[in-house]
């Protein structure tokens, strides 16, 4: 391994690599934020919806959780264009990862909500709280303590799944790295560097998640 040559090529390719990294981070943030919001709604539907709503939410969750992310990305890009929904590769990738994230967050939320004693909801109703107030003030603060550890794992999975978007032409960090490798032929060095960068991203997510978890944990 020629370290000096690698460092020179790394410096020369810094702009394209940083652009790819920024795109990876943006994709991950959008997918996790949108997927978490949608997943909370799915979790509510699974827990408190009527029979039809629960059936639809269960079908949605099980179908998406059982579909490989790679297939989901291809479907969102190619199948949607066939039915007249033209998305850019970036939009299709974020949409696919959002759906994937929401199915997992929905199941996480359902498990956390059903673990809360029903008496909590009945007591909130007895003092006149609406369901929205009960959800925000009573249920979510308690469910959050159970959701966070698994949610952090889901967030790291989204970061790793973002590497698959290169198949539809999204120049995220891995594809940017491969483009550099095609010019420099330093495959081992740059793939090792890419792996280290993804390790740092996921390590940061884990550290932030643990910090939030400590803040919301009971004394």
Topology:
Layout lengths: L2 H10 L1 H35 L2 H15 L3 H14 L6 H26 L3 H9 L4 H31 L11 H12 L2 H30 L3
Word description of this protein:
The protein is mostly helical. It has a single domain, classed as Orthogonal Bundle (MetI-like fold). It is built from nine helices and no strands. α6 (118-126) crosses α7 (131-161). The radius of gyration is 21 Å and the shape is elongated. The relative contact order is 0.15.
Total helices: the number is 9
The fold-level CATH name is MetI-like fold
Mean pLDDT: 90
Q: What do we call the CATH homologous superfamily?
A: MetI-like
Low-confidence stretches: none
First-residue to last-residue Cα separation:
51 Å
Largest sheet: none
**Count of domain modules:** 1
DSSP summary, beta strand count = 0
SSE series: HHHHHHHHH
Q: Tell me, briefly, the overall form.
A: elongated
Q: In CATH's first tier, which class applies?
A: Mainly Alpha
Rg, rounded, reads 21 Å
Structure classification? mainly alpha
Give me some keywords for this one:
219 residues; mainly alpha; MetI-like fold; 9 helices
Care to give the gist of this entry?
The chain is mostly helical and 219 residues long. The chain has nine helices and no strands.
